[in-house]
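Predict the assembly for these two chains.
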Amino acid sequence: MSHPVLKRKENILAYFSVWAIVAVLHALILVGNQHLEWSWAVRDSLVFNTLFSAFALGIWYTCQYTSPATTPTNKILLTHVFAATLVILMWLGAGYYIMMKTLPPDHAYGQFLRTSLIWRTAVGLLLYIVMIAFYYMFIYAENLHKQELREAELQTLVKDAELRSLKFQINPHFIFNSLNSIYSLTMTAPQKAGEMTTKLSDFLRYSLTKSESQTSSLREEIRSVRTYLEIERVRFGDKIRYSENIDEACLQASVPSMLLQPLFENAIKHGVYESLEPVPISFSCSPQNDFLRIVVENTFDPEATGRKGEGIGLQNIRYRLQKLYNRTDLLDISKKDNLFRVSIKIPVEA
Amino acid sequence: MTEPIKAIIVDDEAPAREVIKTYLQDFPEIQLAAECDNGFEAVKRVQQEKPHLLFLDIQMPKLTGFELLELLEDPPVVIFSTAYDQFALKAFEVSAADYLLKPYTKERFRKAVHRAMKSLGNPLTARKVARDVLQHRQEMQPYLERVVAKDEDSIFIIPVEKLYWLEAQGDYVMLHTKDGRFLKQQTMNYFENHLDPGLFVRIHRSHIVKLNIIKQLQQLGKETYRVVLQNGQHLPVSKSGRVRLKKLLGGTAR
């Protein structure tokens, strides 16, 4: 921590201005109360206040190295008893020496100076305490400020990390099964194996690129979803019955990237995968007031076990929407008979 | 000429079955008896065909490869396959089973088949391996979510939520459920270890009961207790069973 006074010119000016006021008061008291001559009162005030204001700058270092947050109390006390004694002795010694050096012999001021040493000690102690109070206050404010900065920084970091972790992550199961499908196609239909490889590459590339950015256009998202479903269709064949109904007006809208992917993955996992019959998956998107309304529906087998309420995919979507738009009413999930339905509202940015 | 080796492929994905079929062309001694795209059908076909060799995928709809294996009384030699199931992989690693990671090469497939053919003559080995795999599999994922059982002509998938209480019957366990009673070849110790201890408690050497269907714990004699179930039925409680029960129910039951 740099010196609170010396670090800026303005502070130095302010510091000595305060001392100037103290010096004026000092001189006035000497004249009014002690009936000293003006010339001696001013000289006394100048010498003692200049000396103390200089020593007081050094007191900072005793405070800096005894920060109350990290130093035991007895060490703080000991440091200050020692430092105060030293500062006051040096102050009075130097002041006395300078004044006596310029004093004509037998001048009344000499007597006054000697008797005043007692109360000067008391004043010195008081000034010392005022100074350390000032310094400690400064340290406290500085720490508080630093902590606030740290906290704010941390908050941004946490939010970033949260948003990142809430994002879709490529399911390893999907990758290995797709590779196996490709492998199989290389033997039965090499042409198709090639197509499938490019589709898988397109999908992986999109997922990886989009894991860096927070939003993308709905058009891009839909393209990625279609690619995904085409890949899965190689595995599941006609068990996937996909239909979509997308309003042209929505395509340019900006949506959180990879938001839709988990919905379709769920539809495959819980609908198509657990079923022995074909499963319809429908996807619709339409503008609605200030929102984009996205609905994904699929049938599922209510008898199939393992589905316990809201899975991690949907939970992540919920949190992510909450963090991005600061509202909790954007995701709606309904399960009726054998129909599973997820509806998402995305605020359209004006 | 030796007798052909009968094999069945069980995998829900057509491309995966295709790979095995293609590779099997190199093994004229293996005769493909059936191809199944789901576990239910597989149980039926295995019973009908009594194959020597089973190519078994783990992740399948309705019935997983493990559950299928559990339902086979006299399992054949099994070559497992999986794309990515961490629990399964761990179970395979520590057990004696042979498994193929999809996608796999022809070479790897050949090795697996050769190894399987060596153990064909010994049906005991096959049974032991199956038991070993299932046991490890359960250790990897401690609490059961569902139990599979079968009778003469059907397979039943019983979600743990529907389980009420279990009763030892010789080498079998009678499962009393919401939808009736099912007999399952298994031990009480197995269920005691693999049912969520927060939901089920072993109250007696031959009884495990779901906590939330217990209405009352009754004291009959100085050291004899029994529980009364919601439906009025009662079950005996052993001394150690009472201690466990009291601990779980806290001070509310007496």
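Chain B touches chain A at residues 13-16, 18-19, 22, 38, 59, 61-62, 83-85, 101-103, 145-146, 157, 159 (CB under 8 Å). The first strand of chain B starts at residue 5 and ends at 10.
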